[in-house]
Design goal:
about 240 residues; Endonuclease III, domain 1; 2 domains
Length: about 240
């Protein structure tokens, strides 16, 4: 990119990021594996529920919160080892989708190891989990884990990257178009690379750019960032 294109790109991205005060601290907790109070079990359940495409804030978050309540009461798996042998019948009242539970359980089985530190297990996996050959990674082969879920787990395991879902693609394509920047957004891997290049040019992290695309969406007449700003501090 030319100097003029980089300058224009910064201006456009700054405008998109302006309403997202507080997002950086959320992303820092994500990269520190501290979402959901640091419970990797809840992070996996979150990822499993989100993988079927329901509204994150109105469907997924309340369901994960119900799981958290049951978990704290000792009535649901608390760690990766327990989650890896999850019984669907025990948790079906919380979330009916059997595939989600199977995904959470199978992914937990891929991550669990001799350590009792679940955060360390997730971070160890994320640090060595490949992107280009993600579908051949053990977690990537779990039924229900597509590239978006795979990247979501890597992000919560400490990798500063992004997810190439349809909302991210649309917003980043709009940014690239407004800035007149010669950056591709069509393929999944090239979109992830484009977001990394935008991050390098603008001083934002890839994870921040990714979350920004979701939070500038509107629900009703309210931008999600305004509607869920306080909630982000808990999850």
């Amino acid at each position: 990119m030319s100097c003029a294109e980089v300058t224009r790109l910064r201006e456009v991205v700054d405008r998109y990021m302006a309403p997202c005060g507080g997002l950086r601290s959320h992303c820092e907790r994500c990269l520190a594996t501290q979402r959901w109070g640091g419970s990797v079990t809840l992070m996996l359940v979150d990822a499993a529920f989100m993988s079927i495409g329901l509204n994150y804030f109105t469907a997924v978050v309340p369901a994960v919160a119900r799981y958290e309540e049951r978990m704290n009461e000792g009535r649901a798996p608390r760690n990766l080892r327990e989650l890896s042998v999850l019984s669907y019948e025990d948790v079906a009242p919380l979330w009916k989708n059997r595939r989600s539970w199977r995904m959470a359980s199978d992914a937990a089985a891929c991550l669990v190891n001799d350590t009792t530190d679940d955060a360390a297990a997730l971070r160890m996996w994320a640090a060595r989990a490949p992107l280009e050959t993600w579908a051949r990674d053990p977690v990537g082969t779990v039924k229900g884990v597509g590239i978006n879920t795979y990247q979501y787990l890597r992000m919560m395991g400490g990798v500063d990257t992004s997810m190439p879902d349809k909302i991210v693609r649309r917003v980043i394509a709009d940014i690239v178009s407004e800035a007149g920047a010669p950056l591709p957004t069509a393929g999944d891997l090239e979109l992830i690379d484009t977001i990394a290049r935008i991050a390098d040019a603008t001083g934002y992290r890839p994870i921040e750019l990714c979350w920004m695309t979701w939070m500038v969406q509107s629900e009703g007449k309210t931008m999600r960032m305004d509607k869920y700003r306080e909630l982000l501090q808990r999850i």
